[in-house]
Structure formats: structure tokens, C-alpha cells
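Section handout, structural biology tutorial.
Before the tutorial, make sure you can parse a SMILES string by hand: atoms, branches in parentheses, ring closures as digits. In the record below the ligand is pyridoxal-5'-phosphate, and the chain has 388 residues. In the tutorial you will relate the predicted C-alpha cells back to the input. Do not try to memorize them.
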Amino acid sequence: MILRGKFPVEKFREIETPFYYYDMNLLRDTLDCVREAISRDPNFHVHYAVKANANPDILRTIARAGFGADCVSGGEILAAVKAGFPGSKIVYAGVGKTDREINIGLDNDIFCFNVESVPELEVINELAAAKGKVAAVALRVNPNVGAHTHANITTGLAENKFGIAMTDLDRVIDMARDLKNVRFIGLHFHIGSQILDMTDFTALCNRVNDITARLEQRGVKISDINVGGGLGIDYKHPNHHPIPDFKEYFATYRRHLHLLPGQQLHFELGRAIVGQCGALISRVVFVKEGTKKKFAILDAGMTDLIRPALYEAYHRIENISSEAEDVERYDVVGPVCESSDVFGKAVDMPSTKRGDFIALRSAGAYGEIMASQYNCRQLPLAVLSDNL
Ligand SMILES: *Cc1c(COP(=O)(O)O)cnc(C)c1O
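Predicted structure of the complex:
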């Protein structure tokens, strides 16, 4: 017996595949859990990381739940505002903000620019001056804390391109405090993604405590600390753990991060909020008998979900329509002309045939938003459970 998620397969039969299916009840339950976990911390603020999934319906649902938005481009700021996030709850990070993008942030009076370099600080000051505004800025610090995750998704090591090195921090803060059209409010950190070991976040807390204590001694006032996102999800067991352990996550910060009275703590969660509510639904085009193995060839490919090809990421693969009793082993692949267009090797599924529906689970984050038209393929559609 292979455990499978529950999907409205009969309704799927009328829909062209591949498509992303979003379980909106799970999304709303997840948002409720986040809210509940911080309900007694009025100084905790969660900004949803738009880059994980910018589907307009998903964004609207998260905005309506009262969360802020964490953006990494001008386009994301526009998408967030359009979906109903107030500018006053938008934070904006990114190593290469263009003048146009900075102006989008200024025009929407966003809460804070997370600044990643000295030249960026100077340009924000100039552009804010031209508009007669003062931009709130936090400096993104590269804390040199490693997250035990895939090398391509760690961001907080000295070798990464992100943030300002700790050795430069004092100088850059002094600069920020001298500029007329920026207001220094605090520090920003983000150490990586898909982090499940809470001790990685504890290590970040300890590093933040060291830095803020030292700055306080120098008389630098910090009103806001942003610890980024990175909380992971259970890709192996989406049915057992549909909602991440937000209680434990926030408790880690409550326990280990020393906040001064009045200090505000910001979080930027992406994957943990939207990851489990999405699945990529596809049909089997052909089952092909190779010389050594069987291939289940899907109508979904790496252009629809690139994470396995890009990060060697695991997604649980389920045949959600087969009623066969016997289990067989397949390499599950897409149709794109790249050898890396493989979703899973040696996957045990009920005996599978042409036309069966295959769900790639836990695809709500970094799925639809990363889709491309390589091979002149169509972009995948999105189907909401609310509309079926
Ligand atoms: C990507 C990103 C996040 C969100 O990361 P998740 O792992 O999806 O929670 C938060 N902050 C910044 C600056 C990011 O680049």
C-alpha cells in the first residue's frame, strides 16, 4: 500500500495538463498556524517572500491574512501592491537594485530597503533626495553562518555575493547615519533555504546578539532586526507534515535572540508558507521500456518544475489515478530535450499506464514562478481548489 495525498482526480480529467493545483484550504490553515504561533508577540512581523510563488490568487490570500511582503525586485513590489499588500509592510532586498526598481520602492513608500552594498546606499540616498523623501534602510549583513543545506541555496557565507561583510559593517553604518535621505533602522540577515535543523537558526541568533550588543555599545540604535526566512518543509512526507512546525521555529528566536524593549523582529518566510499547498499535476504520455528500466514519460517537464534539475531537489511522486495493486519501479522523466529533465529515479508506483495522473508533491514554492518556455513550451496553468 502506497500512501497518497487526496486529490479530486475526477475533476482533473477535464483539465489540460500539466497544471499547478493549489489546495487553498491548506494555505489558509498554514497562514492561521503562523498567526497563532506569533499571536503573543506583537513585535514579531512576518513578510511573505514573494519570490517563492507570485501567483496572484496566492498573493491575495496571504495579503488578506494580514502578512507583509518580502520582495527581491521592482516587479515583485508591483505584484505585491497589486495583490493588496500595503507598502508599509513591504521589505525589499537584492544585490542589484536598478534605479527604476528603487524608484518603485520609493513611490510605494515601502517599509524598508534591505541594502547590500555601499554604492546601493548612495544611490538610494540620491534617488530619495530627488523625490524629497527619506528611505528607511536596514543593512544586510553577511553573518558568515552556514546553513546545512544544498550549496546553491546557502546565502550567509563569506563566499556568497549577498550582504555586507561584518568587517565593513561599522564603516557602512556610519555612512548611512551621515546621509540625509536615508534613515538607518537596523540589520537584515538571511542564511539560506530549506533549513530544518533549528540549531542553524540558533547559530544565527547568537551571531546577531554579538553584532547588536557591540553596536549598542558604540551607541548605534537598532529598532528593527530582520532574520530572513529559510524554514524548510518535509518533502519526503507531505501527508504527515503538511504544515511546518512554526511554533518551534518562532520559539527558537524567542528563546535565543536578545531583543531590547521596543525592538521589532521581522521574518521573511517563503517556502514554509506555500510549499506544501501546491502540486504539479501531469499525465503520463508514454510508458517506455528501456533496456534496463521503465520510464514514465510525463507531459510536465523541467520547464514546469525546475527544482530537481537545478538543485537535485526531491519531490514526492505519486500516481494518483492508478488503481493497480502491483507496484513497479520507474524513472519518471519529462519531455524536454535535456538529460537533466528527470523528476525521480527508481520511483515505486502502482503499475502505471498512458493517461494516468501523476502528482509531483510539495511544489507550491519555487515551482510555478520558475517555469520557463524553453522548447517553446506553454507555461503551466494554475488551478485553485476553491474553483473546482
Ligand atoms: C529567498 C529569500 C527568502 C525566503 O526564503 P525561504 O527559504 O523561501 O523561506 C527570504 N529572504 C530573502 C532575502 C530571500 O532572498
